[in-house]
Amino acid sequence: MTTVAIITAAGRGTRAGGDLPKQWQMLAGRPVLAHTLEAFAGFRRVLTIHPEDRAWAQTLGGDIELVEGGATRAASVHNALRALAGSGVTRVLIHDGARPLVPGSVIANVLTALDDHAGAAPALPISDALWRGDAGLVSGTQDRSGLFRAQTPQGFRYDAILAAHDAHPGNAADDVEVARAAGLTVAIVEGHEDNLKLTYPQDFQRAEAILKGRRMDIRLGNGYDVHAFTDGDHVWLCGVKLPHGKALLGHSDADVGMHALTDAIYGALAEGDIGRHFPPSDPQWKGADSAIFLRHAMERVAARGFSLANCDVTLVCERPKIGPHAEAMRAALAKIMGVEMDRISVKATTSERLGFTGREEGIAALATAALVRA
Ligand code: MG
After folding, report:
1. C-alpha 3 to ligand 1 mean position (Å)
2. Pick from 53, 92, 102, 184: most CB atoms within 10 A?
């Protein structure tokens, strides 16, 4: 099941003040969109942008796919949905770029409801009394029962929402409206007050205060793996292919560093290990690219409402020498995991020629991962 996050950021909204569209303004030292994208790390991410913003978008880093938006929000989402055709996507989460503080728990609520419904979206019931007004005077009252404040991400089964957009004239306020016009049922799940849409200057102050006050749920996991050397001419370590006089023996590509890291992440979630999710008895994982395992672990992180705070991998071997390749390994892992490189450490040590690593019979790897949930 592949879930893609579509982040809408093609609008020109300037009610927030300033010269830049609000999604490019700074929040706690980073563009609003950097926060929003980080909330969806672990998912494949598509960003809809205004054509003039391409240079800005390329400064965001990470593995972000850019799609040029249309004249309206609905047209932008439709472009993104069409761009995903044929790429094996089963579910999409469509999210406002200007909601940078979406809690992981809200994303998890939407995904859980999608198991049983074609669509699901977060909302909050209205607690204030509602009035109608005219020329500065109250002209009537409105019953608030059954009314909700809609939020995003709005989640859908991919085929259903693409068909709904194909059939819609294109002037909808949000994707729930498009989905309902096509007859899809949309479940309401619990939203969060922190999931505010930055619209006015004071919203930025409130968002900064929320960022400062977030209480974090922190989880640590560790992983350990060993693979023996066999005949060959290269090894895969942390997603990088290194020429070497031997190869590592294993059912998959035997990337011992990536296996230790993947197990550290599963460990932090208390969700077992690689062998539980990808049994070695299953022939489909023979020779598999270990990135499949690591991506799955990161999808579980996102699905549980966590994000990766940092991880640290130590490779234990005499040879090959890791130091010259450590930066490439960090970059490869960052790309697979959808997080910034400064959250990823790769280092190496020898065992002073002692033991199986010292005798160059194999390579061992240790990893630690820290996950946080706001
Ligand atoms: Mg292994």
Report:
1. 26
2. 92
